[in-house]
Write a structure and sequence with these properties.
single chain, 404 residues, mainly alpha, Growth Hormone, Chain: A, 18 helices, 79% helix, MFS, transmembrane helix, Oxalate:formate antiporter
């Protein structure tokens, strides 16, 4: 029997990945808190800030396969270090953005590029390559949970900074924290897991990037999986960016929205870890079907129940358990289908559809609000997309197309 324990280099990589994801996703998760103060100061409609966030998600997704390919070829640590530098620059420019075009340059373009190098596809792929196949889903779940912890910590911290220093100074402080990603990138140097006495690996010829892309292109379950991730992106960005504004519209203060998002981050620690653990024992597509179905039920219950502090916080807890639990499961399926050699690139392709969904979730939320004064249309779309998320995963399986 092979030893499935985490090696010391993998443990160091997990710690480094955890801190990087906590910083990267924690700062990004708090962007929704800037929507109201920046829009109020410059007289923007919600659509201006929403469009910048939507562009960020679209650019992030569009370049993710390319960033992933660079990470596969040249190593994750170089890509993550460059991403950390871009992230720092983008936040500093966001701090002085006083027009729509500056906001789109900083938040949309630069931060979109930075996030493609400092978030799940690159970091989870690095972790997945270094882990034993039987522990891969769990390792990804641990790293994903760390990103959730960052969301929990950064939200109240960002609100405190906004209230005490203003939005511009808060962004400068965030930029200083993000700069820590650059030295942390050098923890990502655990070697790829090599199976012992693997006749399959020894006898199979190495595939080129072009060959693996052709195989993925013709593999229908891969595209059904990608379509499911579109649903995830739409829902989490719409709720993450617009729920604080939705609550303000209904008479709640900014603290309530912050606590909601903090609860999402806190309980997502449990959700992502549990999803990674369950993914090592049960069918990942079936688990994803359950997650999307529960999201739809939670949204319907939130809209039908009387809106109160307790229903808001309960919604935050439930959504937190379901929030990014899709990530270790989805990345684990990609690794099972195609192996680990080109995992960053292939995960990046799936993630692109997630970000297309994120674009529409962020942008349509702002458009719907500016046109009607509410978010009713986008809530309905989110519920219908949950049904789509259930259906498409009927057609996803974890069969090996390419072995490690």
């Amino acid at each position: 029997m092979s030893d499935t324990r985490f090696s010391k280099p993998l443990i160091y990589m997990l710690i480094g990945s955890a801190i990087i994801l906590a910083l990267s996703l924690g700062v990004r998760h708090a962007f929704g808190l800037y929507l109201v103060p920046m829009s109020d100061e410059f007289g923007w409609g919600h659509n201006v800030f929403s469009l910048a966030i939507a562009m960020q998600n679209l650019i992030w997704g569009a370049v993710q396969p390319v960033t992933g390919a660079f990470a596969d070829k040249y190593g994750s640590k170089i890509v993550v270090a460059v991403g950390g530098a871009l992230y720092t620059l983008g936040l500093l420019l966001m701090a002085v953005s006083s027009s729509g075009w500056m906001l789109n340059l900083s938040v949309g373009l630069i931060l979109g590029l930075a996030l493609s190098a400092t978030s799940f596809p690159v970091l989870l792929s690095a972790v997945g390559r270094a882990a034993h196949p039987e522990k891969r889903s769990l390792a990804m779940g641990i790293a994903s949970a760390a990103g959730s912890f960052g969301q929990f910590i950064m939200l109240p911290s960002t609100l405190l900074l906004l209230q005490s220093m203003g939005w511009s100074a808060a962004l400068v402080v965030s930029a200083i924290l993000i700069a820590l990603i650059i030295p942390l990138a050098w923890t990502l140097k655990a070697p790829a897991y090599t199976p012992l006495n693997s006749s399959i690996s020894a006898n199979m010829p190495a595939l080129s990037m072009k060959e693996i892309l052709l195989i993925a292109k013709n593999h229908k379950p891969f595209w059904f999986l990608s379509l499911g991730f579109f649903v995830c992106g739409f829902q989490v960005v719409f709720i993450g960016i617009h729920l604080p504004g939705y609550l303000i519209d209904h008479g709640f203060d900014a603290t309530t929205g912050t606590v909601f998002l903090a609860l999402v981050g806190l309980f997502n620690i449990v959700g992502t870890y549990t999803a990674g653990w369950l993914g090592g024992k049960y069918s990942k597509p079936y688990l994803l079907m359950g997650l999307y179905g529960l999201r739809g039920i939670a949204i319907i219950a939130f809209l039908l129940l009387p809106l109160s502090t307790w229903t808001i916080y309960a919604f935050g807890i439930i959504m937190g358990l379901l929030w990014l639990s899709t990530v270790p499961l989805t990345n684990g399926i990609v690794a099972n289908m195609f192996g680990i050699k080109y995992l960053s690139m292939l995960s990046g392709i799936v993630f692109f559809t997630h970000q297309v969904g994120s674009f529409f979730g962020g942008w349509l939320g702002g458009v719907n609000h500016d046109m009607t004064g509410n978010y009713n249309m986008v809530w309905v779309i989110s519920i219908l997309l949950s049904l789509l998320g259930i259906v498409v995963h009927f057609f996803v399986n974890e069969e090996h197309v390419v072995h490690d």
